[in-house]
Amino acid sequence: MGFIAIESNAVRKIVSERMLQSADYEKGQILADVLKEQKKGDFSIDVKVVTTASGIYLLTKEPDKKRMLVFDTSNFNGFKRNSNEVITILQKSCRLAIKLWDKIGHSPCEKIISGSSLIALLPFSFTTGKSYKVILDKAPDKERQEKRNESSFLIFSDGYETTNNTPVLSNFRKAKDAINSIDTENLFTSPKKDEEKSSYLRVNETDVFEKSSNPHMGLSNWIKKLTESQKKFVFSNSFGPDILKGAAGSGKTLSLILRCVVQLNKAQEEDKKLKAIFITHSIATKDNIENLIASNGGAEYINSEGQQSVEVTTLQEWCIKNLGNRIETTEYLDNDAFESKQLQLLYIDEAIDDFFINDYAGAVEFISPELKKFFNNDRWEISILLQEEISTYIKGRAGEDMNIYMSLPRSKNVLPLKTEDDYKTIFSIFNKYQDKLISLNLFDSDDITLSALKETSTPIWKRRRMSNGFDIMYIDETHLFNINELSLFHNLLKPNSNHIIFTMDRSQAPGDNTITKDDVAKELDATLAHEHGLNAIFRSSEHIINLASCVLASGAALFQGLENPLAESMSGHTSIVEERCNVPFIISKQNSHEVYKATFALADYMSENIGIQRSDVLIVPCTDKILMELKEYALKASKEYISIEKRGDNIAVSKAAEDNLYIIGGMEYIGGLEFSAVIIIGADADKFPEKRNYDGESLHFINYSSFNKLYVAITRAKYQVAFVTEKTQKISPLLETACEEGLIRYDDDLANTL
């Protein structure tokens, strides 16, 4: 067959049905098979497939025969790709056709080829190097179409090179002529009564779904909404090891929660014992996960004494609880693991200050040039890298033994230690930090974790594991745990068990590029884990995904460890939702005071423009200094706001929503949250990454960390992302490629009104 032709009414139906946005849905897979194999398939109530000798048609009951999107499959090979890519190509092509028919402007991934009627469509997320293109002719057979008052488009070529060749029109003309002989009335029969319960999603139901699709809707409702990939994971009979990978907004946490509830329900039905533990990184996310388990049918299992139970906890909470009376609440830095690590960083910073004041002058004569150069970096960044050194190497792998520490193999991108004196110098700073903890009678999170690791490695504990160990473990956001914490997990299970199910997105890790996916699998005793992937992203729009992918692709070109989970992802948004979205934009103001003033004005503008609460617009300062200055401005200008002070703090978000307040969150704390729009402040070349005395490993670390943080900030948004910058500065180098590619635009008209 030589063509696939879709008339304009069918085009509009396809882009507006949620179940057709990804091949992860059953209906989307059927549609992909129709395109790949050019055969009939039943994927929609409103769109039918008609096969002819020359090609196939996708038609509605009342087709618009004068306006069609035609794929010449004799030369176009896009539908020979994998199913998800096929759906992405189709959806992006249909959206481009609608823009042309409705005379709407082009997006950055639709590039006009000068001197021709051709458009190069880039359907996939941004990657470095040459991009795959689909070539559309917006005026094929122009004179003939104009005489007949027709407006059909032809997609005739694809590949990594751009062409301006004139397309062959034989298949296009066949598609245009043969449609007139098709009797569409007989294709559509009257709906039967039981079709009201059909699994198809009608177009007029799509917007209702968007409004009602919340994570607390209950398991029975979620069954109807999950993609096939999600269903495969959620309803798997496997106890692991399983890993669920996916980009931000792909539904990893929710899928893990539903998997937990489903497996507990099944154990109850079969009258089998199942003692589960669900581990998360912070208390704020723990509370949210408990609420989600309860609202999706698992309330009876939470902390139950019955046959089936689940304990939701942070790892630090579990460690403290199971160390008996050997540690009091006053003896650990903070009961929240994330906050504990932040306090740990402050004490390490104090130890470094002590070292520079009292010891550096003497040490500088003995240490290597590499370490001397490292010490010329910004003090705070030295502290961040030293925190990783202490946790992973000195406390974790060396057990605070100097000789073992010097003999350990080292990863890339860590402290540059070349000589014995280098190791002794770093160990002396560690001793200052440790002395500080001892004087205050405090234990850090590594002390607690490593003590628990030793405790759980004893013969007594191993015997207790037989009766008290967990049958299965669920771990959310594994990328947030360090190597010590990862080492402990499998000791919580029954002996010889590796029943661990976990989620992971390395691109959201907070700058710790020394731990790889293989390291995680090894520490969890899950090297043979079955890997599940989620491609459809339900949070973010196409424009936001492209921007985030560009940021990660730019970072991946610099850092081998920085993964780009968006490379094969697509937006799950329908055209109805996409109407609320636009290309990310930049507002520039003259100075910092004007930037802060414009930020709050922009939040009000977006709230009114999108039709959302003010609290659904997240304001994200790029640095702590900007965060502090923004809060000071808000106080003086009487701008009431809620500040997110804990990672994934849904309580703060709820409080802001109740009172319709502005909401501000530092980049370290906003992971796991979701907002309709995000405003990022301070993405200027002189501010982000922060311009200090960077060099060597510290420069590498802070740049890597900045790419991570920017990706997390961008992917909190569903519909719109905006940046507010200073006119006197260039845009941050992290966004230069995105600007060059047209994935961000300057909106001077809006800037002048704010």
- Strand order, sheet with most strands: 2-3-1-4-8-7-6-5
Largest sheet: 8 strands, mixed
Structural class: alpha/beta
CATH superfamily (homologous) name of the largest domain: P-loop containing nucleotide triphosphate hydrolases
Strand content: 5-15%
Count of alpha/pi helices: 29
The termini sit apart by: 56 Å
Summarize the amount of helix as a percent range: 40-55%
- Determine the mean pLDDT: 82
What's the CATH class of the largest domain, please? Alpha Beta
The count of strands amounts to: 23
Question: Could you name the ranges where pLDDT drops below 50 across 5 or more consecutive residues?
Answer: 193-212, 694-698
Provide keyphrases for this structure.
seven-stranded parallel sheet, eight-stranded mixed sheet, ATP binding, alpha/beta, 754 residues, Rossmann fold, ATP-binding, 29 helices, 23 strands, single chain
Overview of this protein structure:
With 754 residues, the protein is of the alpha/beta class. The protein has four domains: 3-187, no CATH class; 219-325 and 474-534, Rossmann fold (3-Layer(aba) Sandwich), CATH 3.40.50; 333-442, no CATH class; 542-753, P-loop containing nucleotide triphosphate hydrolases (Rossmann fold). Helices cover 43% and strands 15% of the residues. The protein is built from 29 helices and 23 strands. Strands 2-3-1-4-8-7-6-5 form an eight-stranded mixed β-sheet, sandwiched between helices. It has a seven-stranded parallel β-sheet with strand order 19-20-18-21-22-17-23, with helices on both faces. The chain has a six-stranded parallel β-sheet with strand order 11-10-12-13-9-14. Helix 27 (696-714) links the parallel strand 21 (675-681) and strand 22 (717-726). The radius of gyration is 28 Å and the shape is globular. The model is unreliable at 193-212 and 694-698 (pLDDT under 50). One of its GO terms (molecular function) is ATP binding. It comes from Escherichia coli ACN001. Residues 227-508 form the UvrD-like helicase ATP-binding domain. It holds the Pfam family UvrD-helicase.
